[in-house]
From TrEMBL:
Putative FAD-dependent oxidoreductase. Residues 10-287 form the FAD/NAD(P)-binding domain. InterPro entries: FAD/NAD-bd_sf, FAD/NAD-binding_dom. One of its GO terms (cellular component) is cytoplasm. The keyword Flavoprotein applies. It comes from Salix viminalis. GO terms for molecular function: electron-transferring-flavoprotein dehydrogenase activity; flavin adenine dinucleotide binding. This is FAD/NAD(P)-binding domain-containing protein. Belongs to the FAD-dependent oxidoreductase family.
Length: 362
């Protein structure tokens, strides 16, 4: 345990998403923490799509960093470099560290302030409300959940989902995919598989746009949403001391303690790691908690052999389908409907996530 009055170790956390926010909050009273993020807020990302159909939902799911991170320095900038002793930022700062945690997840250009982000959701909501025909491109969890949200809140809308793969939700099993397709079809969502659409090529028709798929089909749309994968937030690392710690997919290679391999004082958590598991928010938070325990131990002078190991998560996944239903893949069964919906879809774990950061659930 640290002696009273002993100087705290300098910890720099890069990235204010699910993992980075949890770690910064957990260690703010155990180290001299500098928290680097290009935006001023943390966002519960799996609630984004609900916020598009109900903008007021964002009042709880978009949270200023300072609301939960009360004891440390926040640098609202982008990290652009790492040396053996410092982190360099886009606003010309050099921030020294004893320990470093990288949690930059996926690249997603979003506004700097919470208010600007909430205004974006309001604009997306207006787009949906004023449209009769909605096109969604991408059949992963984002595209499927958005189709579910729109079809539930606006059943009068004509929603078309185009996906290049042979089945929806390819990150989980075919049984869950088939059940999801059946559910969407029952809600009058038109699903086109093994097709692509060029969003830059369309013809006008009485104020609507007509898009054409690679299979030669036509899709009428008043607005569209691109729900394909986002690139990893690791491109900037290629010019740093960690350039050789990236695997072929741009992920940071970590050991069982979530330290970057070959590094004693640099950790990586969340989607940017090469941990072999489905990339999900609740697992990113588990990364943060394991890394936080290990950092506490090391900063207090504990022995490395007492560090906690991280065991990759199971193949459990829950994808929300509107406000009542969900599809859930558990290790031994796949369920769809009201029961898995009770687990996730009503509140999307927003209250739980807020509580974990010391905030009121509502």
């Amino acid at each position: 345990m640290e002696e009273m009055g002993a100087e705290k170790r300098r910890l720099v956390v890069i990235g204010g998403g699910i993992a980075g926010s949890m770690l910064a909050k957990s260690l703010q009273f155990h180290a001299d923490v500098t928290f680097i993020d290009p935006k001023e807020y943390f966002e519960i990302t799996w609630a984004n799509l609900r916020t598009m159909v109900e903008p007021s939902f964002g009042e709880r799911s978009v949270i200023n960093h300072r609301d939960y991170f009360t004891n440390g320095c926040i640098v609202t900038s982008t990290a652009i470099g790492i040396t053996e002793t410092e982190v360099l930022t886009a606003d010309d700062r050099s921030i020294p560290y004893d320990y470093l945690v990288i949690a930059t997840g996926h690249s997603d250009p979003v506004p700097k302030t919470r208010m600007e982000r909430l205004m974006e959701y309001q604009a997306e909501n207006e787009k949906i409300k004023s449209a009769q025909y909605v096109l969604i491109v991408g059949g992963g969890p984002t595209g499927v959940e958005l189709a579910g949200e729109i079809s539930f809140d606006f059943p009068e809308k004509h929603v078309t989902l185009v996906h290049s793969g042979s089945r929806l939700l390819e990150f989980i099993g075919p049984k869950a995919s088939a059940k999801t397709l059946q559910w969407l079809t029952s809600k009058r969502v038109e699903v086109k598989l093994e097709q692509r659409v060029d969003l830059n090529s369309f013809t006008d028709s009485n104020g609507s746009k007509i898009y054409h798929t690679t299979a030669g089909e036509s899709i009428k749309a008043d607005c569209h949403f691109l729900c394909t994968g986002k690139p990893l937030g690791s491109e900037w690392l290629k010019g740093t001391i960690l350039k050789n710690n990236l695997d072929g997919q741009g992920r940071l290679m970590v050991d069982e303690y979530l330290r970057v391999k070959g590094r004693k004082n640099i950790f990586a958590i969340g989607d940017i790691t090469d941990v072999p598991e489905i990339k999900q928010g609740y697992l990113a938070q588990k990364h943060a908690l394991v890394a936080a325990e290990n950092l506490k131990l090391l900063m207090a002078g504990g022995k490395e052999r007492k560090m906690s190991t991280y065991k990759p998560g199971s193949s459990t996944a829950i994808v929300s389908l509107g406000r009542r239903d969900a599809v859930a893949q558990f290790p031994y069964t796949t369920l769809i409907g009201f029961f898995p919906g009770m687990i996730k879809s009503r509140d999307l774990f927003v209250g739980k996530t807020r509580k974990e950061r010391g905030l009121q659930p509502r």
